[in-house]
Structure formats: C-alpha cells, structure tokens
Amino acid sequence: MTTAADISSLSYGFAAFCLKYLPAILYLSVEVCFGLVFFTYMVPRANRLTDPIPYRDYGEDKRKLMLRIMHRIEEMCAITKADKKQTMKTFLTEWFHVEAKTRRTTATTDHKTAVLKCDTPDITYTPTSSPENSDDESTQSNVAVARTTISATVKECNDAAEILLFRQEMDRFFAWAFYGKFYSNLQPREVQELDRIYKELEERHDLVFPVRTIEQEHIQCGQPRCMTLEKVNAMYRPLLVYMLVYAMKIAGGILLRIVGFRRIVASTGLVAWYRPGFETSASSSSYLPMLFFHGIAPGGVILYLPMLFFGLATERERPVFLFENRTISCAIDFHPLTEQQTVDGVVEVLEKCERMDQKDLSLFGHSFGSCLITWILASKRLPNVKQVVLIDPVSILLSEPDVMVNFLYAEELDKIRMVASSELFTEYYLRRHFAWYNSELWLEDVECTMLIGLSEKDEIIHARKVKQEIERHAKSAKLVYWNGVGHGACIQSPAKWRQFKQLMLEQELQIFQKSCRQ
Fold first, then answer.
1. Which residues pair with 99 in a beta bridge?
2. Cα(149)–Cα(154) distance, rounded to whole angstroms?
3. 374: CB partners within 8 A, 6+ apart
4. What structural domains does the chain harbor?
5. Which uninterrupted H or E stretch holds 217?
6. Residues 420-454: pLDDT tens digits?
7. Measuring CA to CA, which residue among 56, 489, 393, 418 is closest to residue 236?
8. Helix H segments across 131-187?
9. Residue 400: alpha-carbon gap to chain centroid
10. What is the mean pLDDT of the chain?
C-alpha cells in the first residue's frame, strides 16, 4: 500500500529529475520545434520559384553572350591546338547530368564520378567534380579505374548507336541558361532568339541537335542542370549551429571594435566594417584603401580576420573596409540583397567615410566575393579602382559548368558540402537570387591592375582552365599558382599571406609611381 511518504518521495525525485535535466529538455523541445519549422516552412519556401533576374549587359540579344562564350572557347582552342567542335560539344554536355544504368550492370565508381547509360544521346561521362583537383591520390586512382570501366561501357554502347544531343533537351537547357525559364514558358521572340543561337552553333561548329523521334522515346538522356528551376538540396542543421555562428559573429564584432573598426549600415541594408588609416608619413598615401569581400563561410568575414590582421592588411596607414554578405554566412535570412542594392550600399558606405569613393581603391575578394567585385566593376560607379585582388575566384569562367557542378551537385560529403554548399539559406540564395550571367568576370573588361591566386587542387573551380584563361590575358593579370592545395588553403597559411602581400605591395608601388608621373 502506497503511503503519503512514498508519494512525497516520488514527487521529490521527479522534481529533482526535472530540475537536473530541465535545460536539456528545453533545448530538445526548441530543436524539435525548429526542425518542424525547417521542414514544413523553410524548405518549402526555399523551393518556391522566383522570377528570373534581368540580364544586365545583353538585353534581349542573348546571342551576344553565346557568341562571346564561343569566341573564348575558339581562342583557347587556337592556343592549345584542341579541336574546336569537340571542345564546344564537351562544354555543352558537361551542363547535363546523367543517372542511368548500363545494359548489363551499373559500374561502381568513385564518389566523384557520374553513372552513364549506354543509350544516352551525346552525353559523355562527366565527373561531379574535377578529379585532377582532388587532394587524395587514391581518389584519383579510383577515378582512373572508374573511367576505364565507364569508357569501355560507352564504347560498347557507341557500337550499337550513334550518340546524339537531342533538340528537346537542348531547348530546356538554353531556355534556362538564357531566360531562366522552362521552355514551355518562353515567348515567341525568345524561341526565335534560341533559333539564332542554334544557327550560330551549326555555322561555326557544325553542331546540329536532331529532334528525338517517337522511336527514340525509350532512350533516357541527360537532364540539363537548371539550378534556379530546381529544388534546394540542403542538409538540416540544428538551431544550435546557427546560434553558435551568431555568437561567433558577435565576438568578432567586439574584436573588430577593439582594433579600431566601426560598423556602418547602408540604407540598402549592406553592412560594412571600416577602419580609417593613420596618416603617419608621406608614404601613407601609397597604400590603397582595401575593400574586402568574403566568400561563402559560416560567420562570413570573421573567419578571414587572422589572414587580414596578420597577413594582408597589417599596415595601420591603410584604410580597410570589410563588407558582410549575410546570406552566404550561415544565417537565417530569406531577404538577400540584390546586385543593385549591394553596389549602391558599397558606394554609400564609401561616401560616408571621408569620400573614399573619390580615392584610388583596391578591391579584394575571395571565392564568391569575386562575384560582388564583378558587379562593382560592371556598374562603373567606382572609376578609381586601381587594383583588383582575387583568391580562388569563382567568377572567372563562370559560364563553364565547373563551379556550379562542383559546388551544388557534388554528392560526396566533403568539407565544402558539410560546411558551406548544403546550408539551406546559401542554397536558397544561389538557386533563387543569383544570376550567373551577371556575375562572370571577363578579364578583357578589367582595365586596372590584377593579382590572382589559384589553388591547384581547388575542389570548386577548375584551376587549370582558369589558369589558362588568365595566361591568355597575361598583360593585365599577375598569377600566383599554389601547387598541391585546395580551395581556401590560403586562408590558413601565413606563408601564402606573406607571399601574396609582397606581390600586392609591389603592384601598389607601381601604381603609386605611375600616378606620380602623370
């Protein structure tokens, strides 16, 4: 028989248990609620399609962009002695994704390889990221074995039928690439514009895309990678992750204030940190004000502070601006700034700080930060930009499929996918509010001095291709090529800071001497 003492003891024990584990219970309750909101509201909202962003440079004549891409490919083929038609064909096919089985068995491949179907029309094997950029020698060996297996299968299939790219799939791809739409939603004039593009491909490269017949309907062909028309491919992150990143940003903000920075918010919502330079000598004017734009990273600019404080911006005489991009910083944000808002915000911040917009400037960007620099240069709002410094720039050759495929479509759980590319709000921004056609940096358009750092085994950009493109414009760009390292390796390498800093100062001295002679 239960006595009053027993009941009292049980009540006391239950109360003690609740008090002991109350924080954990509350936290788990909050996480469960956040998880429900994440999957029932955030993901569906991120999957809503948005209107395509207008072209900045080409207007209604999308053929101009295609002609520019073809001209670049043709010039590179002339330098490398590569076959122009095959190179153009490869460029197009790498925009397609193939998931199918071979006639007999599915080849087991490395995690960086795609799986082919033998009857696929003109879609050749394409890895989800460049194997030559892999940091793992065993991975490269496995890729070589997989390539051999797949090549044998493809040869077997080619013996049975000619491989072709069908017009229907190309229509879908071009409708997305040039208009950000499904082909069925194109206006008649837009369809006519695509016909002009097809005509250029046929006349310049003898590329013709036959219409798939009823008899060929059974053939499973590649699907174009149309990132802005697809659902997000995000991984769930607990609320605790976002809270820790936010705490890191608060701590970073305190540190920035301690070392002399002040926070500035433009009317467009753009946030910047500004540290004025000390005029200690006549040589102080030789230091160009630095505008720094970070890449995709948790906490944004905070992760770059060691590189900036102890490597690239050590001079107290140099004015420094650190611009935040909240949407790519692992923050809960469904309201990213547009290109116009970003450029307007940068100009406004400079105007507020001793009319810095009227002074000679140096733009510095890492990874995705190079896209914001592209916007600034294209706007012509800052005519006094004298130096552009880029590390691991994704904006060069952005019309090539490498960056998009490696960042958004890689299937392996490597550090880039775990830390950056699978984050919901980063995916939302890239798939709904980012225009690749307005963000590509064409080196021939850059009139100022350039310094570019590339990592040989970069997992996102195709370093060898970008290196060739930079060398094609050798007169306007100085290249540093770091062997044996991957994307972002410079951020944690003091030796690379010193090397890059020395080259920056040499360029600045040349710029200063040139201005003195004028």
1. 115
2. 9
3. 395, 438, 439, 440, 441
4. 63-229 (no CATH), 239-517 (3.40.50.1820)
5. none
6. 788 999 999 999 999 999 999 999 999 899 999 99
7. 418
8. 137-160, 167-179
9. 12
10. 84
